[in-house]
Amino acid sequence: MARASRRAALTHPEPEEIDLFDVLHALSDPTRMTIVRTLSTEPERACGTFPVEVAPSTLSHHFKVLREAGLIHQREEANRRLTALRAAELEARFPGMLAAILAAYDRSPEAR
Fold first, then answer.
1. Coil, strand, or helix at residue 45?
2. Residues 66-82: what's their mean pLDDT?
3. Which of the ends of the chain has fewer CB neighbours closer than 10 A, N or C?
4. DSSP letter at 4?
């Protein structure tokens, strides 16, 4: 008998539901920017492998904020959760926004 997952089902907003103010709020945190920056150079990454120094529960919170804002997509694979940036969907919804924010972040002291 298969064991039921203890994790809550992941929900993601549809592209047309992504709100610019939610996206900007999500990107206002340095840890979340690090997550997004990392995903901008990799197609997908396991949740525990990001270069951030926060507790697992805090990291889960950051992923939830990013997911609910529409910035990331997460999926379950066996016993791990994989995360990807919704770059194409964000580009279609807000052309040039993500590239401009990432470029500004790369020039900021937080990125160094």
1. strand
2. 94
3. N
4. P
Long-range contacts, 62-67 (Cβ 8 Å, 24+): 62/29, 62/31, 62/32, 62/35, 63/35, 65/25, 65/26, 65/29, 65/32, 66/26, 66/32, 66/35, 66/36, 67/10, 67/11, 67/12
Residue 41 has pLDDT above 60, yes or no: yes
| Among candidate residues 100, 82, 87, 81, the one with its CA nearest the CA of residue 40 | 87
**72-77 and 45-46: which strand pairing?**
unpaired
Residues 6+ apart with CB under 8 A from 16: 93
Half-sphere exposure of 25 (CA within 13 A, CB side): 11
Q: Is this structure's pTM higher than 0.85?
A: yes
Residue listed under structure tokens 């492998």: 49
| CA–CA separation, 109 and 77 (whole Å) | 35
Integer CA distances (angstroms), 6 to 31, 61, 79, 96, in order: 26, 17, 11, 38
